[in-house]
Automatic annotation (TrEMBL):
The keyword Nucleotide-binding applies. One of its GO terms (molecular function) is GTP binding. NCBIfam families: redox-regulated ATPase YchF. This is Ribosome-binding ATPase YchF. It comes from Coprococcus eutactus. Pfam families: MMR_HSR1 (PF01926), YchF-GTPase_C (PF06071).
Length: 365
């Protein structure tokens, strides 16, 4: 799962990206933490995993991870090739969701590319580039579809849909706000992989003084929240500069610093968790002396599919899953006690795995 960080220059993308990967590096202990300077693997914070590690005295703890990509260089005119624009747009096409960083902090030392802090104008500048790029994609699609549409009803229907999306985009609207009429259209729009169809989280980058009340008294943040309502997008308030400082600290120091700031959780932790649920992802857990680990699956995945995340043999030879919910396990204090209380279930192939299930798979090799 991959998330792309976008936004105008100088809004705090790199600062945020660096703190994400730095924080991830320390908690996840991932050797491939920076695959390349713009891609980072980040651990999904999960208290349950820490508790399991304690209960089992596990030698190793492996969290679920998300990949973040810092997509710099999106500027006005990017879709026309300004500043390597097209290359950056191609990078966005590869991600599953977008974190759109918006500058809401005032700081005369940090130049704004358009001369003033105006988050809605900034968002629309970026959106417009994404829309232009999507129109180009549709133009190419339409040119192809049109050839076959005269003799093929299905292609004619698709052509009609493509032209409808194009008109919608030309109105300055995002693909995600179009009404999808039926399953065919749903499948098509998924296939087109349009930039403005991807899920978005706005990260409102505020100054230090605005974190304690979560941006409530920052006018710019309020504007972004109002704006985001129309797309069902979540808005997160972060202070990239503070996150960068937090990323340098160990857990204990971090806790104290957060207390001083008057917040419970770092903005980054909230952002990572939100990204995870935005993508419709959940975690199931495995626990043992060797390793306690969180595994990422899509909501709705059945037991064999979940087993396949560990190893394809587990999926092929799946017999059953021994499942206990994290809460039941903790309430009982041990797996043995949970078994004695009858809280460990034997589940078969049709079982839909839930977030926080602690699972032991039985399989044939
Ligand atoms: P990018 O071009 O979007 O990647 O922006 P950078 O992360 O490089 O940040 C641009 C400048 O803004 C740098 O000088 C940062 O130190 C500064 N900056 C980033 N976040 C904040 C913040 O929350 N508050 C303040 N005052 N400055 C910030």
């Amino acid at each position: 799962m991959k998330l792309g960080i976008v936004g105008l220059p100088n809004v705090g993308k790199s600062t945020l990206f660096n703190s994400l990967t730095k924080a991830g590096a320390e908690s996840a202990n991932y050797p491939f933490c920076t695959i390349d300077p713009n891609v980072g693997i980040v651990a999904v914070p999960d208290e349950r995993l820490d508790k399991l590690t304690e209960m089992y005295n596990s030698a190793k703890t492996t969290p679920a991870v998300i990949e973040f990509v810092d997509i710099a260089g999106l500027v006005k005119g990017a879709s026309k090739g300004e500043g390597l624009g097209n290359q950056f747009l191609a990078n966005i096409r590869e991600v599953d969701a977008i974190v759109h960083v918006v500058r809401c902090f005032e700081d005369t030392n940090v130049i704004h590319v358009d001369g003033s802090v105006d988050p809605i104008r900034d968002i629309e500048t970026i959106n417009l580039e994404l829309i232009f790029s999507d129109i180009e994609v549709l133009d190419r699609r339409i040119a192809k579809t049109i050839r076959g549409a005269r003799n093929d009803k299905m292609l004619a229907k698709e052509l009609d849909f493509q032209q409808r999306i194009k008109a919608h985009l030309e109105d300055g609207k995002l693909a995600k706000t179009i009404e999808v009429a039926d399953e065919d259209e749903q499948a098509w729009i998924e296939e087109y992989n349009l930039l403005t169809w991807k899920p978005v989280i706005f990260a409102a980058n505020v100054g230090e003084e605005d974190i304690a009340d979560d941006g409530a008294s920052n006018e710019n943040v309020q504007k972004v929240k109002e704006y985001a309502k129309d797309f069902d997008a979540e808005v997160f308030v972060v202070c990239a500069q503070i996150e960068q400082e937090l990323a340098e600290l160990d857990d204990e120091e971090k806790k104290m610093f957060l207390e001083d700031l008057g917040v419970k959780e770092s903005g980054l932790d909230k952002l990572i968790k939100a990204s995870y649920s935005l993508l419709g992802l959940i975690s199931y857990l495995t626990a043992g002396e060797t390793e306690s680990r969180a595994w990422t699956i899509k909501k709705g995945t059945k037991a064999p599919g979940a087993a396949g995340k560990i190893h394809s043999d587990f999926e092929r030879g799946f017999i059953k899953a021994e499942v206990v919910s994290y809460k039941d396990l903790m309430d009982c204090g041990s797996m043995l006690a949970a078994k004695e209380k009858g809280l460990v279930r034997q589940e078969g192939k049709e079982y839909v795995v839930e977030d926080g299930d602690v699972i032991l798979f039985k399989f044939n090799v």
